[in-house]
Amino acid sequence: MTTGAQGITLRGSAELVADFFSFGINSILYQRGIYPPETFTRVNHYDMSLLVTTDATLKKYLSDVVSQLKEWLYECTVKKLVLVVTCLETKNVLERWQFDVECDKSAKGSSVPREKSIKSIQDEIRSVIRQLTATVTFLPLLETPCAFDLLVYTDKDLEVPDKWEESGPQMIDQSETVRLRSFTTSIHEVKSMVAYKVNS
pTM for the full model? Predict the structure, then answer.
């Protein structure tokens, strides 16, 4: 981690937020049964037990996305990350997990670390991940095989890498939205929410 004991830098903040997305996405994919439970393994992180995928293709995909995200977070160009869950048969969007990212751009020109300890940031992240895990108590059961997509919203003038493609927002008709907890590194703030289809 590129952070001193006394605070947090922009690079350190970008790493922490990218790290959160990696564990958060894994957690949602596991909780919502998008991949079989036996393709996940337990790891200890943030002083808690978390599940991460062992599926080689998914691991590579997530690792590519997260390393690109880390760069964009460092450049303060990410606006939001959205994980969309769709029904494989109908292609209908069933859930939309949205993480809004706000970056204090004044951190870009400054090498002075912010006064916030890694521990307090990780405590906040832990409570967000606990809440992600708890959402299964109110989200409708996904009864059909599902796929997922990751959408990243960035500043308009950003050069997009070749392997990324433009996509529509993939909204849900007749949805309920639940706001979840947020956390801040004092440089990046991440607010989360989940929208899900209400069976009409």
Answer: 0.91
